[in-house]
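Lab notebook, design round three. We kept the backbone fixed and only want residue identities now. Task for the bench partner: fill in a sequence for the structure below.
Input structure tokens:
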């Protein structure tokens, strides 16, 4: 499927009015927990940027066609995110892509939807968001397997990975800029969160990383779901970590070890614990439990 966006006759005056209305609305409802969050902008290419704040990393493409945004963190951060984007482009936000359904990646959907952005995501993302979100926050274009978006003089290849971090994960590759946004199929320098209750699995997660590696080269710049901007070498290290822990857990299962035995066996993850992988959202005990639960099924 191909989705093409060209320049439209949308007036900047209308966009600015909508921008201000959303800005005021969200600021009034902002939660104090995000008051001290700063949005950090990193330039990856001449028109691709990565934004870091609180929650999943955001990708931004700017150009004559408008602005493409990948993920949008929490609703209360929308004013800060919009302000950061305005420093990059004065064009309207045309497209918002969701890499999956979690709130730290889709929390701003309603705000961006009110600005007139077209929200796009995998079929399962819409299904999950529909359970708790208003209509304006839902993807209006969904896909099952893959999608191609033409914007800002390049094709963005979007493809679904089955049962990885969730059941609705999408990888996005900017074919001319050579930039890959992995969503939460990659936590740079950290143990991953595999959401088993949302259809995620260890094997699917590993396959997602392998799929990402297949489309990139040594010069590719990677926007991970969490962590600093990355590259192919670091993604390969991440894959090695996943496969090492999987092998260790499978060995423990073959030896008759119980879930508690695996959770309490620090040797299974020691190599990567020593490198600080367990210092993030998922600690060592939790990653061992998730691997055991997924691989035991």
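Proposed sequence:
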């Amino acid at each position: 499927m191909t989705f093409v966006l060209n320049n439209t006759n949308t007036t900047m005056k209308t966009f600015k009015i909508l921008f201000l209305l959303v800005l005021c609305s969200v600021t009034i409802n902002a939660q104090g927990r995000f008051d001290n969050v700063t949005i950090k902008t990193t330039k990856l290419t001449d028109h691709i940027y990565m934004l870091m704040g609180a929650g999943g990393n955001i990708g931004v493409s700017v150009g004559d066609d408008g602005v493409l945004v990948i993920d949008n963190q929490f609703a209360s951060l929308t004013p800060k995110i919009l302000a950061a984007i305005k420093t990059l482009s004065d064009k309207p936000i045309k497209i918002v892509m969701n890499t999956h359904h979690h709130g730290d990646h889709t929390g701003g959907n309603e705000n961006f939807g009110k600005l007139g952005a077209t929200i796009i995501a995998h079929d399962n993302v819409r299904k999950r968001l529909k359970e708790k979100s208003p209509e304006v926050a839902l993807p209006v274009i969904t896909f099952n397997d893959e999608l191609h978006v033409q914007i800002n003089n390049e094709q963005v290849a979007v493809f679904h990975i089955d049962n990885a971090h969730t059941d609705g994960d999408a990888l996005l590759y900017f074919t001319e800029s050579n930039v890959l946004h992995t969503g939460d199929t990659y936590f740079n320098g950290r143990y991953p969160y595999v959401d088993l209750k949302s259809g995620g699995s260890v094997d699917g997660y590993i396959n997602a990383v392998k799929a990402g590696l297949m489309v990139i080269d040594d010069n590719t710049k990677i926007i991970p779901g969490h962590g600093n901007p990355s590259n192919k070498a670091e993604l390969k290290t991440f894959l090695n970590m996943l496969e090492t822990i999987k092998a260790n857990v499978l060995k423990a299962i073959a030896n008759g070890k119980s879930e508690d035995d695996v959770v309490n066996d620090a040797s299974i993850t020691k190599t990567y614990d020593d490198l600080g992988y367990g210092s993030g959202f998922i600690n060592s005990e939790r990653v061992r439990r998730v691997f055991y639960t997924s691989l035991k099924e």
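Keep this in mind before ordering anything: The longest helix spans residues 232-254.
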